Amino acid sequence: SETFKVAVLPGDGIGPEVMAEALKVLDAIEKKYDVQFERRHANVGGAGIDLEGKALPQTTIDICKAADAILFGSVGGPKWESLPPDEQPERGALLPLRKIFGLFCNLRPAIIFPALTGSSTLKESVIEGGFNLLVVRELTGGIYFAEPKGIETVDGVRRGFDTMLYTEPEIERITRVAFDIARKRASKVCSIDKANVLSTSVLWRQVVERVAKEYPDVALSHMYVDNAAMQLVRWPKQFDVLLCGNMFGDIISDEAAMLTGSLGMLPSASLAEGSFGMYEPSGGSAPDIAGQGIANPIAQILSASMMLRYSFGMQQAADAVDAAVEKVLDQGYRTGDIYQGTSGETRVNTVEMGDAIVAAL
Ligand code: NAD
Ligand code: IPM
Ligand code: MN
């Protein structure tokens, strides 16, 4: 049987709680298909700081390097917010992981499951018939990474600064991914920018236009990010692929997540060239509900499904996981974040939701 090496990085807050459910799903996949997932657990984020003195310990990096893919929970929380910024879980671990492994492409698919149309905050008339949009977010460039950045005092005045910078190759690379994927979907790309203000966006638009000429079969449109934020809640069905830089993609994907009923539903794949990837829920460590065992594990489980699909080439198994999630939602299982209180719904906790999905498999 085939063996894949998975680095398991649960992290902080709800990370370990939802990770446990994703691992149960991997157990079920091992039984159902002729495959083995050799898992190595490693500390990351606040857990890395508390247990090994660093948000991203070298042992964790080594375990990731030896793996075929990384399954990541989430990092961060109030406990570590007063540390120097570069030592905190987000800037000390998550961003470096993305950089070290060249994870330039972040896919965040926002799909409304038919059973959850009532859990979306949008009117049924706006979302009936469903929508299926994919945020393609550039993940290793832009204002998140460019230097200089910092806080300094000049003439007695403190100031903070970041640099927004994109190179033409960076834009071209993520644009090609967006167009290649669009071809396998509804063949529409909407590129999100702020070209009326930002130079990076002016270049972004030029590069996207140039690359688009090689994809005459894909319809390209451009939209300013402020309008896009509005259009997403006005009429989400107009979108297929949303191509975004790092920061706009971060913001737009949380908004897209909520259209599906909850941030706890939205998985993501952070991909390098080739088959290596890190698979992480789009949401965070949710300190407000951590430790209560009530978080929605579906984003983590669907992230594991994306790992099967994109890093291991296991389309069938990935489809099976997605179908199991859809089935339990049809059966009415709901964690608190997607619970409406209508008849036919059963309110469940994190473990019960994981169990139901495993049973459906
Ligand atoms: P968050 O995504 O953690 O939470 C936002 C809201 O969504 C909260 O009300 C939370 O309860 C809810 N939510 C998120 N995931 C959920 C789930 N699976 N089930 C049910 N509800 C869920 O964002 P935040 O509160 O702005 O940030 C908290 C911490 O998480 C911060 O330290 C932040 O930096 C970090 N963060 C980490 C990641 C990551 O590791 N990938 C992503 C986003 C935020
Ligand atoms: C995400 C998160 C991260 C990001 C933070 C925690 C650094 O919000 O994965 O969306 O902004 O990329
Ligand atoms: Mn985010």
TrEMBL record:
Upper lineage: Bacteria, Pseudomonadati, Thermodesulfobacteriota, Desulfuromonadia, Desulfuromonadales
Binding site for Mg(2+): 226, 250, 254
Keywords per UniProt: Amino-acid biosynthesis, Branched-chain amino acid biosynthesis, Cytoplasm, Leucine biosynthesis, Magnesium, Manganese, Metal-binding, NAD, Oxidoreductase
Binding site for substrate: 98, 108, 137, 226
Superkingdom of origin: Bacteria
Record Pfam families: Iso_dh
Positions contributing to NAD(+) binding: 77-90, 284-296
Site positions per UniProt: Important for catalysis: 144, 194
Main location, first listed in the record: cytoplasm
Protein's name in the database: 3-isopropylmalate dehydrogenase
Single GO term (MF): 3-isopropylmalate dehydrogenase activity
Entry's localization field: Cytoplasm
Isopropylmalate dehydrogenase-like domain: residues covered: 5-357
Family listed: Belongs to the isocitrate and isopropylmalate dehydrogenases family. LeuB type 1 subfamily.
Note describing how the cofactor binds: Binds 1 Mg(2+) or Mn(2+) ion per subunit.
Reactions performed catalytically: (2R,3S)-3-isopropylmalate + NAD(+) = 4-methyl-2-oxopentanoate + CO2 + NADH
Organism field: Desulfuromonas thiophila
Cofactor(s) demanded: Mn(2+); Mg(2+)
InterPro entries: IsoCit/isopropylmalate_DH_CS, IsoPropMal-DH-like_dom, Isopropylmalate_DH
Complex and partners: Homodimer.
